[in-house]
Amino acid sequence: MEKALPPIPAKRYFTIGEVADLCGVKPHVLRYWEQEFVQLRPMKRRGNRRYYQHHEVLMIRRIRDLLYDQGFTISGARNKMQELVHDERDKKLGGEVMLDGIEVLLVDDACFDNFEDGQFAAVPDDLSSQMHWIRRELTEIRELLRVI
Predict the structure, then answer these.
(1) Order of all β-strands in the sheet with 14-15
(2) Which among 5, 18, 17 has a CA at the least distance from the CA of 63?
(3) What is the distance between the alpha carbons of residues 75 and 100, in angstroms, rounded to a whole number?
(4) Which of 4, 6, 22, 40 has the least C-beta neighbours within 10 A?
């Protein structure tokens, strides 16, 4: 039986080593996949260091599943990824919301009472930081949707 992949932490950026651990592949495989899958374009900074975002980690896991678990060839996986991207784009244009890979966070409505200046009153620090992360992500998603 195959070992389950670890959960993806609530971070904005991941290094290639972190992504390799999260996805169960070696860093050189990730660099190769960047050449083969046009959808996979991590941000590059100083010295060509790669920084992956959450959605890219999910994409890599999907590519890994297609290649390693479902037995697709690189060419077949590339075609399947293009189909998936087109399907997701069509769903977004149709008003459907994609929640693949989203971890559900149950929050009492009282947590949102007295929300002022970006601060949640009477909320434990770990929950508060998760809600701030969610707020940032939702803002980023809203900006991405404005582009479409």
Answers:
(1) 14-15, 49-52, 43-45
(2) 5
(3) 24
(4) 4
Task: Locate 73 and state its tokens.
Answer: 């060839």
Q: Return the number of other C-beta atoms located less than 10 Å from residue 59's C-beta.
A: 22
Residue with the two structure tokens 């060839």: 73
What pLDDT, on the 0 to 100 scale, is given for residue 56? 94
Tokens describing residue 10: 């609530």
Which among 58, 145, 52, 53 has a CA at the least distance from the CA of 101? 58
Q: Which amino acid is at 81?
A: M
CATH number assigned to the domain with residue range 14-93, chosen from the 4 options 1.10.1660.10, 3.30.160.340, 3.40.630.30, 1.10.357.10:
1.10.1660.10
Considering the chain, tell me which residue range(s) the CATH 1.10.1660.10 domain(s) occupy.
14-93
Mean pLDDT of 96-109: 52
Give 41-81 as a DSSP string: --EEEGGGEEEE-HHHHHHHHHHHIIIIIS---HHHHHHHH
